[in-house]
Specification:
The chain has about 180 residues and is mainly α. The chain is built from 9 helices and no strands. The longest helix has 19 residues. The chain is elongated, with a radius of gyration of 33 Å. The relative contact order is 0.08.
């Protein structure tokens, strides 16, 4: 099969859409038309909202330097038992010192503490029970108790059907 030669007129009719640019050897290529400038002119990147100092500024802080956000996050995370009970003690100290914090974060604290009712560690269960009994429940007396009771009852009934006898006995202390 022999290709027929295309005349120069037909080549001109095809168009110039895909015209190849001939580059000279050794010359630098010009940057593409859609190139993005990625040069950084500053020597450091400052993120003020992630600073540890600004996180604690304006918040009430316990003796160990915990604010309510940090203490409750340590309370819920699966950590060793000493860390959980220490976080609960930190939350108790924080609420005894700053009672206004409890009024602001009451629902969040109840959500964290209700999960400790059926904890496997006896010290953590006792500490959370004492925190609820001595600090959280007395502050809830003046407010609407309906949401608090419904939040707690599911976890208390769950603890009553737990396999460990100690957890079941602890659940009956709430009544």
């Amino acid at each position: 099969m022999v290709r027929s030669k295309v005349s120069s007129k037909e080549q001109q009719n095809r168009g110039v859409d895909f015209k190849k640019i001939k580059r000279k050897i050794g010359r630098k290529l010009p940057p593409p038309k859609n190139a993005t400038n990625t040069e950084i002119k500053s020597k450091a990147i400052v993120l003020p909202e992630q600073s540890v100092a600004s996180e604690k500024a304006g918040l009430s802080v316990s003796k160990k330097g915990f604010n309510i956000k940090r203490a409750s996050s340590e309370n819920i995370s699966p950590q060793p038992k000493n860390s959980k009970s220490g976080a609960l003690i930190g939350v108790r100290d924080l609420f005894l010192k700053y009672s206004a914090e409890l009024k602001l974060h009451k629902y969040a604290v109840m959500e964290k503490l209700r999960e400790r009712i059926s904890d496997n560690d006896k010290v953590v269960r006792e500490t959370s029970y004492q925190l609820l009994k001595s600090v959280v429940f007395p502050s809830c007396k003046e407010d609407n108790q309906g949401p608090f009771i419904s939040m707690m009852m599911a976890y208390i009934f769950n603890a009553m059907t737990h396999l460990a006898v100690d957890v079941r006995l602890m659940a009956f202390k709430f009544f």
